[in-house]
Specification:
The structure is a single chain. The chain is α/β, with parallel strands linked by helices. It has 3 domains: 2-238 and 261-395, Glycoside hydrolase, family 3, N-terminal domain (TIM Barrel, Alpha-Beta Barrel); 406-601, Rossmann fold (3-Layer(aba) Sandwich); 667-781, Immunoglobulins (Immunoglobulin-like). The chain contains 21 helices and 28 strands. The strands form 8 sheets. The chain has a 7-stranded parallel beta sheet with strand order 3-6-7-8-9-10-13. It has a 6-stranded mixed beta sheet with strand order 14-19-18-17-15-16, sandwiched between helices. Strands 23-22-27-28 form a 4-stranded antiparallel beta sheet. The chain is globular.
């Protein structure tokens, strides 16, 4: 039945295009917009000139969910779809995450064909979706979340993962993805940190650039494979509460902190679109913030692509922010501020009202430029020219052997070991039984943007199942350890006592705690979700009774390994961190996270992940990122309070800091040198160091380079990452690592202008941002 539907859709698509070609052929010359040999811009201009205002406005919105799900089956409401399509027909989304790709594809092909056949000018939809762990719907390779893959600090491997995700998107006909997210995880309370690359602008910019370059790579026909949307311009952060510390706000903060991760991707990768955020900055919501959208994003940063809203953001201008009186008022204000496309609106959408402003020449002109930007993306991606995807190619592409191997490898490099007192790696001959405990030990906690039913084994093995495969089910004693992961007044500790008894019986406890669980669908397990979008964390302790469970296990004295599963970080006070034998953060899971942790526990894989965020020492000790300003660490009075970060006293540089991560082997980074080639504006700083594996196991180390000018025009962070490289070394092997930094790269924005200081600089090279892991080098640029 599916094959017949697909075939019918394919034939309809082909027939309608043949009809279009015949209709618009004059003297054997194609109408320009139908000629694939012409540049995308020329085709878009030609088509725009043939469209009515109604047809143009229709391109400025789309239909979020083509397919829904009811009683475990895919559903498609043709009546509802057609009602929205009349006024919003620029793009479509595949719909519900738990629908399988093979079910969704015939429906997508059907509506794509009908749109081409029924629209006067045969303008196709472009299909758009989120893509973080993989494709939006079920059936593809399930990769770890963004924060996990960034923890690999391996750009080359990450590029291969994105290539696999890209090809799986193309197999279902996704031509435009709502990624990458380059917002910075500066505040550990933010529920969306799992979607981000970390707290550092340089690191996030490098990973985002690689994502865009791979997704937007051109195919053999010269078409962009998949368009990208860099987001969210610009996402806010809070401040700390320290007496003399910096206060957040102003252009320098936006460009050097919040916007630092946008600079390289926009300059070097040129994403075809960008999404404005929900945030209000200086009292002006981004959707109508002309200064940030036009003067800064387009002017200062030079972005040339399409600017879209976030989902329902234009609606929120009049329902939440109260800066517009109606949908029509919000639409015109957003359009005039610089928004060009309305993403996932409710009902008929706000931009659909623009048709009523046809007597306003400014609105008509802005609609024209907005539609032109969208049409250019459609032509660049081959949306007018590519054949519909087929079921046969879908089956060949999703979960290819090569994709799964890349998935395994990046998962292996993404897990971060934060402590090991010598308990690990375990020896298989010495382990008779293990107790596997915790509410995250028998689920796949992949995040709400992943197409993953957390308990379905088709998405991979949970930690429990992986250990059972390794040791035999009879040797793995499992307990959830808590009745609920939500905060609760329920003080019943019966299940905790049961977990403690299992730990004592086995003689070793593997405890997996965290937060998260669930997708966007409230009917699945969202009633247990404690992390990700819409869930900020006032308390960074483990939710519910999880901390009580961990304390009870530790009180037994049984050797204990803690594995954290989440997009967020958690507090690990000395009273907890001290007694634990080993600690890991596995972040948001992929389908091989359970297998990888099992491999690491038994030494089959040597952990090499590094933190991309700093783990705070106390609730309220925020901001905590490593690149704070010097004045953020001063301000106390008297000998008892030399610093007021914070009371009870904690340091501004916690031990579990950005860039930190342990290995089963040891590395020595030495023989560091620095010199400057050339004079001032044309100079290049060259640094090198040797890395030696001084332990007894093959492993990977990330060599990290930080810097700061001795004197700056505006206050500069205590240090900033500027380069990194991951190396793989056998025991006793050494490798030289070279870094080359053009003078331009040492700069920062001052009131919207790029500035680079001359004079003295300090560089640090080592294995993390912790001072004890770094070697200092000084150089003068003159």
């Amino acid at each position: 039945m599916k094959a017949k539907v697909l075939l019918g859709a394919q034939l309809a698509y082909t027939a309608c295009w043949e009809g279009a070609m015949a209709l618009y052929t004059r003297d054997d010359t194609l109408v320009p917009y139908l000629d694939p040999k012409l540049p995308a811009r020329d085709r878009a201009v030609d088509l725009l000139g043939r469209m009515t205002l109604e047809e143009k406005v229709g391109q400025l919105g789309g239909i979020r969910r083509v397919a829904s799900r009811s009683n475990g089956k895919l559903t498609f409401n043709q009546t509802s779809f057609e009602h929205i399509r009349e006024t919003q027909n620029g793009q479509i989304g595949p719909g519900f995450q738990f629908n399988w790709a093979e079910e969704v594809l015939p429906v997508l092909n059907q509506v794509r064909s009908e749109q081409i056949n029924n629209s006067r000018l045969h303008v196709p939809y472009i299909t758009i979706s989120d893509s973080i762990n993989g494709i939006w719907v079920s059936g593809g390779s399930l990769f770890p979340g963004t924060n996990a893959m960034a923890s690999s600090w391996n750009l080359e491997l990450y590029g291969k993962a994105i290539e696999a995700i890209r090809d799986e998107n193309l197999a279902i006909g996704i031509q435009w993805v709502l990624a990458p997210e380059v917002d910075l995880a500066k505040d550990p309370r933010n529920g969306r940190n799992g979607e981000m690359y970390g707290e550092d602008g340089y690191l996030a910019g490098e990973f985002a650039t690689r994502y865009i370059q791979v997704m937007q790579e051109k195919d053999e026909n010269g078409w962009v494979r998949v368009a990208t949307t860099i987001k969210h311009w610009v996402y806010g952060q809070g401040s700390g509460g320290v007496n003399r510390a910096s206060m957040l706000g102003g252009l320098n903060h936006i460009l050097n902190d919040l916007g630092a991760s946008y600079v390289k991707p926009i300059r070097d990768a040129q994403p075809l679109s960008i999404m404005s955020s929900y945030s209000t900055v200086d009292g002006v919501p981004l959707s109508i913030n002309k200064h940030l959208l036009q003067d800064i994003l387009r002017g200062t940063l030079g972005f040339k692509g399409l600017i879209m809203s976030d989902a329902n953001a234009i609606e929120y201008l009049y329902t939440e922010s109260k800066v517009a009186s109606s949908a029509a008022d919000a639409a015109q204000k957003a359009l005039k501020a610089g928004l060009q496309h309305e993403l996932h609106p409710s009902g008929n959408g706000a931009f659909a009202t623009l048709i009523k402003a046809k007597e306003d020449p400014q609105v008509v002109s802005l609609v024209n430029s907005s539609v032109l930007a969208l049409l250019e993306i459609k032509f660049l991606t081959g949306t007018f020219d590519r054949p519909l995807p087929t079921q046969e190619n879908l089956a060949k592409t999703l979960r290819k052997k090569e994709h799964l191997e890349i998935n395994r490898q990046i998962t292996r490099e993404s897990v971060v070991m934060l402590k090991n007192d010598g308990l690990l790696p375990l020896k298989i001959d010495d382990v008779k039984q293990v107790a596997v405990i915790g509410p995250y030990a028998d689920i796949i906690n992949a995040g709400m943007y992943a197409a993953c039913n957390a308990t379905d084994p088709v998405y991979g093995s949970t930690l429990r199942r992986s250990l059972e495969n390794k040791l035999g089910a009879e040797n793995v004693l499992y307990s959830m350890g808590t009745n609920s992961i939500l905060p609760s007044n329920n003080t019943d500790d019966k299940i905790i006592k049961e977990a403690v008894a299992l730990a004592e019986k086995a003689g070793i406890a593997i405890v997996m705690l965290g937060s998260g669980l669930g997708t966007f669908d409230p009917a699945t397990v969202n009633n247990q979700r404690t992390d990700q979008e819409g869930f900020a964390h006032a308390d960074l302790n483990f939710p519910g009774q999880q901390m009580n469970l961990l304390k009870a296990i530790l009180e037994t004295g049984v050797p204990t390994v803690l594995i954290m599963s989440s997009g967020q970080t958690f507090l690990l006070p000395d009273s907890i961190f001290g007694p634990i034998n080993a600690v890991f953060h596995s972040w948001l899971s992929g389908e091989y996270t359970g297998d990888t942790i099992t491999e690491i526990l038994f030494g089959e894989t040597n952990p090499s992940g590094k933190l991309t965020v700093t783990i705070p020492e106390a609730n309220g000790a925020f901001p905590v990122s490593y690149d704070f300003l010097p004045s953020d660490d001063v301000g106390g009075f008297g000998t008892a309070l030399l610093y007021d970060w914070h009371w009870p006293q904690v340091t501004r540089s916690p031990p579990l800091r950005f860039g930190f991560g342990l290995s089963y082997t040891s590395f020595l980074i030495g023989n560091s040198t620095v010199n400057v080639d050339g004079a001032r504006d044309y100079s290049t700083v060259k640094l090198s160091a040797s890395v030696t594996n001084t332990g007894g196991m093959t492993g990977k180390e990330v060599v990290q380079l930080y810097f700061r000018p001795m004197v700056s025009v505006i206050e500069f962070p205590v240090m900033k990452l500027i380069r990194f490289q991951k190396v793989n070394l056998d025991p006793g092997q050494s490798e030289k690592v070279d870094f080359s930094i053009p003078y331009h790269d040492l700069g920062y924005f001052v009131n919207g202008e790029w500035h680079v200081d001359g004079g003295n600089y300090t560089f640090w090279i080592g294995s993390s941002s912790r001072k004890e892991d770094l070697t200092q080098l000084n150089v003068r640029i003159s």
